[in-house]
Please model this.
Amino acid sequence: MAFQHNLDALALNDVPRVDAAPVQRPRLFTPSRPLRGAIVVGPIAVLLLWQMASMTGLLPERLLAAPSKAVTSVIDLAADGTLLRHLLASAQRAYTGLLLGVVLGVVLALASGLTRIGEASIDGLIQVKRAVPTLALIPLAILWLGIGETMKIAIITAAVLVPVYINTHASLRGIDLRYIELARTVGLTYPEFLRRVALPGALPGFFTGLRLAVTTCWTSLVVLEQIATSEGIGYLMNRARDYGQTEIIVVGLLIYATLGLTSDIVVRLWERHALSYRKVLGT
Amino acid sequence: MSAPLANARHSEARSAKGNPMAAATRDQHAVRDSRGGRRDGAVHIRDLVRSFDGRAVVDRISLDIAAGEFVALIGKSGSGKSTLLRALANIDDSVAGSGAIHVPDNRSVLFQDSRLLPWENVLQNITIGLRTPDARERGLAVLADVGLAGRENAWPNALSGGEQQRVALARSLVRDPSLLLADEPFGALDALTRIKMHELLFRLVEVHQPTVLLVTHDVDEALVLADRVLVMDAGRIIVDLRVDLPHPRGRSSEAFEALRAELLDALGVIVHV
Model:
């Protein structure tokens, strides 16, 4: 009776008016719907602050040029074709290394994740490699491969390989044993098991690794392009330092940022398409 | 009954690590049953032992199930019923044990969870491992049988629990199994969905005529569906009860009540009527 009484009280006081239009209710524990283009909000805010600091003289040009100055420099550099030449030289190094590193990382992750021999021989080596900073390998790489493109691409490959391997391997190892039981009860062959269970199961980790890799491949370039080059964004930036041209350094930084952000967006779009079956936080 | 066992060559004596040869040869010796059963669906088990850490969870069980028979296996948690089913499904090769098992090659397993691959759509999940050229048509037909026609392109995550389990049932039946092994397939469903699933399973079993071993903890579920109910306790079968009630079985008939009381008694539940 007391329960019934409470219900009546609730009915009188607390029932909200029902509106015709659907109301967007806040969702507990899950972030609200992702906003379109939300990823650029932070970077644009920083750019605005930076521009304001330069215009008010808070940030002198000999330390850092204003973004607007950098933009005019980009236009100048682009006009005479210098920028494109350097960009293509860098892109070729970065993406050749990226491609090799990703392929190698995935192959090693599969070999190590699916076979005991692979695990015994590969996993330890990669962990050692992970502990050594990639750039620390440069002196050895120069002795082995010279100072040319081969050495640069080899270093980028080595840097890219690690995040791809680690994440793909972790994801592969995380595949639920129940799916492996299922594969047995429906009589899958080994190639069928690879294609329908192992590879799709490893895909989320692969994408995480790839997102790290697309930015890692550019990072190594900055250092590598100090060595015996006359082309590339890194070369351009190092020369600008010698001449005190902070706006060119800013151009280089902006190019790295743009490339990194664009690559990340491309990978994320691909990821969203490939993993569209998932119902997870943040979708 | 010993005739099919005479040429059995897969008696096992396994270490805890499992013997891959025993597991491999076990599949190659389906019983060719010529007695009565529509197909080679009979199951024969002799002196089966499965143990964890030296404790026998399945303790020298011998059991024969005729082709086309619907057998329910009930028992308390830890009585060994799932272990027995997993042995028949041949997905227990990390478990120590011995004994002889005759099961048809053509068998399906229905798990408690639907176990659908989240990255494949409903139809791909149903036809997985099916290599006949008409796999797609058969998949669509059985999808319609479980009442999900038109949902073939849906992702499993977009389905309700009951729908997912119906897809799993379709996946089991599309390969037209001689033996259907079901491990508490409706245990995770709500009571209303479960009743609907009982009707669906019964109807489909009538059509496809597999031998069925249904592991369950639900006495009513066993009595509504099965021709025969086994009660397992501490690794042994302690009751083997034939259920000769006509279908559909009302749960409130006197005969049903009597069988339920007998089974609950065997399970150690004291019934006050």
User: Anything to note?
Assistant: Chain B has one domain: 3-106+177-266.
